[in-house]
Predict the 3D structure of the following.
Amino acid sequence: MASNVKFAVKKVDFYYGNFKALDQIDMEIAQRQATALIGPSGCGKSTFLRCLNRMNDLIPGTRVEGEILLDGQNIYDSDIDVVNLRRRVGMVFQKPNPFPKTIFENVAYGLRVNGFKNKAALRESVEKSLLKAALWDEVKDRLNNSALGLSGGQQQRLCIARALAVEPDVLLMDEPASALDPIATQKIEDLIHELKNNYTIVIVTHNMQQAARVSDITAFFYMGRVVETGETEALFTRPGLKQTEDYITGRFG
Amino acid sequence: MERQNFHRELENLRLTLYKMAALTRQSFEKATQAYLDRDDDLAQVVIDGDREVNRIELEIDRQSLRLLALEQPMARDLRMIVGIMRISNDLERIADQSVNIAERTIFLCQHPPLEPVAAMGHLIDISKKMFNMAISSMREMDAKEAKKIPPLDDYADEYNMQVLKSLIEVMAASSPGFEKRVLKMRRSIQTIIISRCLERIADLSTNIGEHVAFIAEGVNIKHQQKL
Ligand SMILES: Nc1ncnc2c1ncn2[C@@H]1O[C@H](COP(=O)(O)OP(=O)(O)O)[C@@H](O)[C@H]1O
Ligand SMILES: [Mg+2]
């Protein structure tokens, strides 16, 4: 198991001021698998996801306790380069947030920030990322058009391409399809299936069927705690705890 | 997200299954009663009643498929629906076996009785017991009760073998007149078929017990080492 662990989360507490939003989270996140986080609204899924690349650092008055090891190294150590951490652990949000620039520039952005200058290499890398995000065929003839002219689903895949361009190991996705129509949602789900061959994916979704479809491992959060983690198939067919069963069968929440 | 409407429909599905179980029990009870009492009117009631069981089975299939397609049930709810479909399938086959018993009984009623075979009485008792355990474990979704059924299956098999042996002896014993010998063989064979039906009903009751354990605990106790 040990070599297969991407994140080892140990006794993590998280506070917004005095409010404890995460309580003693212990969890291992397997490499090159999709892990889904489910649970009722406000249970701490997004908070937990943001802990994994220290996005919460950007929210004033917050505090983390415990350890989160990424490939064995604590990401909250003082000598960690947070910019590099966020390159390795990319994030895709609920609402697609492309920049008001061209399609090409959106994907190239992270590379430019990281000092990438060679034009041919840049172009090649943008193409590769768009291919991986299953968007290339739809945009290859209009790379210099504004990203804002794309549909919502295309914009979301563009954001995924942007995250992939800097060659991360991990993709965090916070309800990546909840603002999309069913067809665009289907494309994102297909993409997740594809991406998990090469990336570790952690996805928050309020859609349980989606969690069941796309993930290998599912963790059920409730009131800031992890109630149960297990293989997705087992968790959705025979959960170990009644609380999990009651939630996923819609008996509360 | 609470799913009250879905759970109401799931409850209705369960009630439909209970209704099917009650009808199947009636068929089985009446079929054995008709055999023991040599009552061909009662046997005919069993045959006529089978259409209703078949109708309910189709109804359960329809309701189950609809819930699977539209509600995408999870966990216990999912196992419940899959389990109900399997149980209704086995109930339908038990009702068919009861009809088969009734048909043989009508034939036997037209002729003088064979000498009684003790194992037949035991086989009726054990198959009834297993069936009733299956139904009560299903009502309570009681895995503990359900797991007591499979070990009884060996007894049913054994009694069935004993009936077969006894009736082979009956057939082998010489009696005067060709016509009489043929008729004795025909009655014996019909009785052997009834015995075989009862043994099948014991098997199907075992299956139901396995489905109940699957619904209640999510484990498959099928094909496990006999206890
Ligand atoms: N920026 C914030 N400041 C204060 N409290 C917050 C903030 N973000 C989230 N919370 C609180 O933390 C808890 C967990 O929220 P969140 O992680 O967004 O839950 P989820 O993603 O499961 O819906 C909630 O009670 C929420 O109100
Ligand atoms: Mg959230």
